[in-house]
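Run: sequence + xanthosine-5'-monophosphate -> complex structure.
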Amino acid sequence: MEKELVLVIDFGGQYNQLVARRVRECNVYCEIYSYKTDLDKIKAMNPKGIILTGGPSSCYEEGAATCSKELFELGVPVLGLCYGAQLMMHVLGGRVARADVREYGKTEVKVDKSSALFSDVSEDTICWMSHFDYIAEMAPGFRAVAHTDNCPVAAAECVEKQLYAIQFHPEVLHTVEGSKMLYNFVRGICGCVGDWRMDSFVEESIKTIRERVGKGRVLCALSGGVDSSVAAVLLSKAVGEQLTCVFVDQGLLRKNEGDEVEAVFGPNGSYDLNFIRVNAQERFYGKLAGVTEPERKRKIIGEEFIRVFEEEAKKIGTVDFLVQGTIYPDVVESGLGGESAVIKSHHNVGGLPDYVDFKEIIEPLRNLFKDEVRKVGLELGIPEKLVFRQPFPGPGLGIRIIGEVTAEKVKIVQDADAIYREEIANAGLDRSINQYFAALTNMRSVGVMGDERTYDYAIALRAVNTIDFMTAESAQIPWEVLQKVTSRIINEVGHVNRVLYDVTSKPPGTIEFE
Ligand code: XMP
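>> structure
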């Protein structure tokens, strides 16, 4: 049986991968192609449906991203979103013009429930609008099936030709019933059965990786984090011992983390790969001695990591492929996501390659969001503890020790953090708080223990809830939990006589202390 495929044609909008993700949520396989893709190639893929994304241009301007009229004559249902909707009208003989006011933000839309697009959708529904141009006249054969106070054609359809246009963005969560609308298109109008699952992603990835790698040698920098672990396991399933994973323990990992990673991926673990653990703790502590400035510490840790990795790579000799655990949010922030604009560069993208001798990069998770990567991880049988790991910064505890990093301080923060994590898990809060950790402040203060005066460090506890890590709220941890953590840290961790809880949100604070 041929696989059901929906094509997303990319016109440079910021939400394109989100569209693809929503299609995957309907259990339908989906691929994204540039608007420049040849029509014959599109035909040959035999899609069950085509979705045209948003984009930054005005479709009537010279040189704007466009598509041919024939795309709408393939007999395949087409859904245009925002720019895609305007382009559909423009190409088929309607008129798109600049509106007097920009419509932006959450907007109440009135929909015509008789349209198959809006089946089971409320008549008045909140949608996310973001457009300057509007559909001033629909193309012949279309009828309007939604409107807002400012936008006469918020959606249109030509049922006979299976063409649909939506001015707003159903793919973003602000469009309350957007997923339903996309489901209606993909599963209803296109008639997809929806038999695609994440295990199909795993199977397909393994197959394509095998074909691509052949007998080549593959190198992967394994950090023990979710993304690099999932990428490594995927590669190991695909090419087994052709894969070498280098894991650098820089002495800035959480308590026992190095051994935990080794237990999973090392020679006694469950995967078929060559595992190289480099214990470089002393080397990193040496470089960090006397350094207090946060950015300088980050730079030293990053550079030293590359040096170590490079030395190991040299021992292995030439490799053909380098694996990176890049995931989609890394790609989009770096402006490498197809037709969309650059937002900022990211440390995971294009970092290592300059330093290592290899021919090609493999990024098997490049099109997935974090929660999808986790699903793949579970599918691959990676332990839940690893799959649901909270984010951990590349420079590790180096930026959770304020001021100079020493082996003694690393031990203090590791022990305090382990207690904190244990108690958060005991309280059943470990899956609901997005990121939490202990940091070692550089502050020493006076205390009393038994009958003696102490002069020791203060540990700061941090816990935040956030969706995107760009903004965050301090989590409200029950007082009893904080008290228990505090008393355990003071009793069990040497050189600490005070525990503080950070209630600052981001902004104005950041999540990490440095
Ligand atoms: P901030 O502290 O900027 O953190 O609010 C936002 C998120 O990014 C992580 N973070 C880093 N990750 N290298 C990384 O790989 C870094 O230098 C770094 N600094 C912060 C932080 O843990 C949080 O999830």
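>> summary
The pocket of xanthosine-5'-monophosphate is lined by residues 298, 347, 391, 393-395, 435, 469, 506, 510-512 (CB under 6 Å). Confidence is low (pLDDT under 50) at residues 341-350.
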